[in-house]
Each structure stands twice: as structure tokens, then as C-alpha cells.
Amino acid sequence: MLWARQFGRTEDYMAALSRRHFEEPGRGQSSRHGSSVTMAPEAGLDVEACAAMLSSDRLVRDVWRPYGTTIHDKGIHSIPLFIFNSQLTDGGPFRSGSPEEEHGSGNKERFLEIFERLLAGVERAKSKV
Q1: CB 21, CB 29: distance < 8 Å
Q2: Which of 14, 50, 55, 57 has the most CB atoms lying inside 10 A of its own CB?
């Protein structure tokens, strides 16, 4: 994405990535160089230049710097971090509020518990109106 941005093609590249990821499972994995290179022409980007960039470490610092800063500044200590909000909450590491959070991989019972708690809060608020 950073590389595509240099050419004003970020939106086009992300559209190609999203389309492949959701409509052609297995073809849109951005973590694979081959997928990234084959998406380049769909976004109007040069294939050879894309392959050369991926073979270099040119943007490594640009990628890791904000990632490292963000996880430390926002207290994110596990991946994935799920933040769940309802109409009554507006929270998470990037906002104030009181969301439901799940650090790391949760099981379906934990997610159901979170959704039920959020729904119950919304239903309580509606009954007071």
C-alpha cells in the first residue's frame, strides 16, 4: 500500500486486494509476493517495479515504525485485538469509552457472551426511553 501510494494508486490496489481476498479466496493473500505482484496491473502499477520493491527492504522501516509505536502507545499486547462497541459505547485504544475487548483468539462462547452483554445494555437503554 505504501508503495502504491507513491503513484496515487492506493485505492486501486486495495480494491484489487479486497476483490481477490473476498471473491477469489487464496489468490488475494497480500502476504505473498506473488499475489502482490499479480495485483499490480489491476491497480495500474508496473509489475516489474512491484517485484523489485518487494525484493528490497526499501519500505521496511516505514512499515514497522508506526506499527511499533501504535502497539506501545495504545497498550495493544496481543494479536488479534477485537474491540466491540454498541450504540452505547464508543471505545477502544483509539477512542475514549467502554467497549468490550478480547485480546488474542477467543472461543465462540466468549464472543457470544460479549455480544449478549452489548445487546442487553442496548435493550436496557431502550426500555428507559
Answers
A1: yes
A2: 50
Strand (E) or helix (H) holding 84:
strand 81-84
Tell me how many helices (H) and strands (E) the chain has.
Answer: 6, 2
Say whether pTM exceeds 0.70.
no
Give the cell for residue 51: 517485484
- Cell digits of residue 50: 512491484
Least confident of 29-33, 68-72, 94-98: 29-33
Strands 81-84 and 100-103: antiparallel
Residue position matching grid coordinates 506501545: 72
Burial 98-107 (b: 16+ CB within 10 A, else e): ebbebeeeee
pLDDT score of 96 more than 80: no
Closest CA to 64 of 5, 2, 14: 2
Whole-angstrom distance, CA of residue 110 vs CA of residue 127 = 26
Amino acid at 46: D
Give the H or E element holding residue 34. Answer: helix 33-39
